[in-house]
Amino acid sequence: MIVLNSLQDEGAGFGKTTNKITFIDNNFVVEPMDLKSKELVANDIINKVIAHYEMNAKNK
User: Fold this and answer.
1) How does DSSP classify residue 27?
2) Strands 30-32 and 2-5, bridge-based pairing
3) CB of 1 closer than 8 Å to CB of 26
4) CA 22, CA 50: separation in Å to the nearest integer?
5) Tens digit of each residue's pLDDT (9 = 90 or more) over 4-45
6) What is the pTM of this model?
7) Torsion sign, CA atoms 30, 34, 37, 39
8) Distance in angstroms (rounded) separating the CA atoms of residues 1 and 10
9) How many other CB atoms sit within 10 Å of the CB of residue 1?
10) Beta carbons within 10 angstroms of residue 41's beta carbon
11) How far is CA 12 from CA 15, 23, 27, 34, 49, in A?
């Protein structure tokens, strides 16, 4: 999984209180996210990682 952090969107990037990220999975599925607080972005990333590992555990 890749997490892209936008530096071009208004209100996103370093030195701001918000970020806009995009997830790209190993099948190249792109999932853009809305502009959110950095805390909510961190929650999204953690939840995505947990879901990934839970899905892989079920498939084994």
Assistant:
1) T
2) unpaired
3) yes
4) 17
5) 998 888 888 788 899 999 999 989 999 999 999 999 999 999
6) 0.83
7) negative
8) 25
9) 12
10) 20
11) 9, 15, 26, 10, 22
